[in-house]
Design a protein that fits this description.
This protein has 132 residues and is mainly β. The chain has one domain: Beta Complex (Metal Binding Protein, Guanine Nucleotide Exchange Factor, Chain A). A hairpin with a 6-residue loop joins strand 8 and strand 9. It is globular and about 35 Å long.
Length: 132
């Protein structure tokens, strides 16, 4: 297992800031579902225990649809979704790779995820928030 280090990130305007633990070498998912395709979200799923919201809880607005399990969290000031609680991993967070400060991510491996057919593939992501 790779050693976890602290990564930091946030929204465009800086009202929302967070940090999380993950290795410098990460595997992320590129999803083709309607929300991710429209927003360009690139998923780095981390366990809830490894994620800390540093500021901006009062600035977050939630958007839910379909089952209501996923909590898409947007900054009410700038509109950026820098992280959210995914349906596949309600015990963790999906951090947008594009919203992580530069300098701590050393290597990125991309996996394509078929979110358009989520029901058939969603369970395949559940292990990512277990901290293994």
């Amino acid at each position: 297992m790779l050693q976890k280090i602290v990564h930091r990130g946030g929204c465009h305007c800086g009202a929302v800031r967070f940090e999380f633990l993950a290795p410098a070498q990460v595997t992320v998912q590129r999803c083709n579902c309607s929300v991710c395709a429209m927003t360009g979200f690139v998923h780095l799923i981390v366990p809830g225990a490894d994620f800390s919201l540093l500021r901006g809880a009062d600035r977050l607005q939630a958007y839910t649809f379909n089952t209501g399990t996923a909590r898409h969290l947007f900054c009410a000031v700038c509109g950026v979704k820098s992280f959210y609680v995914p349906r596949s991993n309600p015990d963790g967070y999906s951090v947008n790779l594009r919203c992580i400060e530069p300098g701590t991510i050393g290597q990125v491996q991309y996996e394509d995820f078929d979110g358009r057919n989520w029901e058939a593939h969603g369970a395949g992501l559940a292990h990512l928030s277990r901290g293994a």
